[in-house]
DNA sequence: CTGTTTATCGTCAGGCAGACGACTATGATC
DNA sequence: GATCATAGTCGTCTGCCTGACGATAAACAG
């Protein structure tokens, strides 16, 4: 082989696509934008865009995220800044036929964000929305065409990553506002996994895991009922032993 | 933005790099090749190469693997064929400065293979070898320069992926020949995690997990001592509950 | 035959999770 | 204001799994 001869190999376009997940009204939702041009014109797609010349992949993802949602990603490598959205690389998709026009390799990223107001994509409220992932992934049955390109696969991979990762990490707190109650955190797990959890056992588990939650001092009744203690995410990122997802 | 205008964005070179892991003499080892040219001439690096024009990323990784080791990857999407090496995508590395010559985005793949004879890289035995990952990742101390490019980071990520993934999947069997004993499987875990496991508890765990192991019918004494029953990997890919890695 | 090595079966105590009872503190409704 | 509905929080009990470890079995080396 003749390594690194640029002329010997066809150029690739490199993009980032974003799977932005949040929990709204007890459902796991993803951010989708409407395509304004061919191909797949008018269809919903994941937000994304080209990686620029002197830009790292994570930086490109953070930039796209900021452009689409105003969120400032909380890159583990750049701590402190941002309103807490979690960003991580998901996987890379490079099937030669995934884009009919040219060879595009897309590095998908996963973003977990707290519930946000309606998205603002280029100021056009009609061109971006939060949609329940169940709806986006239920293709064919109702005649809806599903997402553009291979974005249904990317979304499915992102959802599966989120579902499994909250098992053994404290990542579920990324779906919550800075201060939250145990019940709110439980509703996150229930929405992401699509199951009902026992409030008492859940409470015992999360409050009994050292470093997972730290008391924030106050209480709230925003969920109704008895006032609940407010917590902040603790420093622990790994949950050991993990929170087990109930079987089916 | 003006999507998909090829001239509007700089072209990227896309490569695949391989983290090929195996267990040799009770140590987790990785395949490295010696670089024949600048930059990093003479240094060890992960095997890899350019993705071709009409080639999927996984196909490129499988091709490079075959060229470097003769292994035929057992892609989950293409079952049956191959001598059982496991291949999966690891992560993508695209720092603008990771290659001093041009913008290269590398899609790293992880390969888990049974113990193999000495590698044959382009027929040159001196240019490829199995090296213990501890040795490859212990940089600076002994003055050795470490791996080329960002390959130390890629290797570290691959090792961490392997270490965590054998916890909750049956992937450790990918390090074993088609038929193996419980003790051989245990030595795989011990080598990958770098810990000692209790043979009795390990035996109880793996034989008690339905679908993990299926008896192959025979016995062997290739490890010495009492003959051990031979097993084959069962159909189960997920281990529930997982095999817990001992603390520290 | 004896010691060494490895495999395999059993036992026991502690920890954790699932099931679920009981009590508490708020707002809503009559 | 009494009652109800809603959520949160604390306990109890039981079964399963794990870690620690004793004991036995089946080969080989001397």
TrEMBL record, chains A, B:
All residue ranges annotated as the Nudix hydrolase domain in the record: 11-153
Alphabetical list of Gene3D superfamilies matching this protein: Nucleoside Triphosphate Pyrophosphohydrolase, Winged helix-like DNA-binding domain superfamily/Winged helix DNA-binding domain
Pfam short name (any one): WHD_NrtR
Single Gene Ontology MF annotation: hydrolase activity
Entry keyword set: Hydrolase
Record's signal peptide: none
Record PANTHER family: ADP-RIBOSE PYROPHOSPHATASE (PTHR43736), SLR1690 PROTEIN (PTHR43736:SF4)
Protein name: DNA hydrolase
Species of origin: Streptomyces amritsarensis
């Amino acid at each position: 082989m003749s390594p690194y001869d640029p002329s010997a190999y066809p150029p690739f376009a490199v993009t980032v696509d974003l799977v932005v997940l949040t929990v709204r009204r007890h459902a796991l939702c993803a951010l989708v934008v409407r395509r304004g041009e061919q191909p797949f014109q008018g269809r919903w797609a994941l937000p994304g865009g080209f990686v620029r010349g002197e830009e790292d992949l994570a930086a490109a993802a953070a930039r796209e995220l900021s452009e689409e949602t105003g969120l400032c990603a909380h890159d583990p490598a750049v701590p402190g800044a941002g309103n807490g959205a979690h960003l991580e690389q998901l996987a890379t998709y490079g099937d030669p036929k995934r884009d009919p026009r040219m060879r595009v390799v897309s590095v998908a990223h996963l973003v977990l964000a707290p519930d946000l107001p309606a998205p603002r994509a280029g100021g056009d409220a009609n061109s971006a929305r939060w949609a329940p992932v169940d709806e986006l992934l239920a293709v064919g049955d109702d005649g809806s065409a599903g997402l553009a390109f291979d974005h249904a696969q990317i979304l499915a991979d992102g959802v599966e990553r989120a579902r499994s990762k909250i098992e053994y990490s404290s990542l579920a707190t990324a779906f919550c506002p800075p201060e939250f109650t145990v019940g709110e955190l439980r509703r996150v797990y229930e929405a992401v996994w699509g199951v009902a959890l026992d409030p008492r056992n859940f409470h015992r588990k999360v409050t009994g895991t050292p470093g997972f939650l730290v008391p924030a001092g106050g209480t709230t009744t925003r969920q109704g009922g008895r006032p609940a203690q407010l917590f902040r995410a603790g420093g622990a990122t790994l949950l050991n032993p993990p929170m087990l997802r109930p079987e089916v």
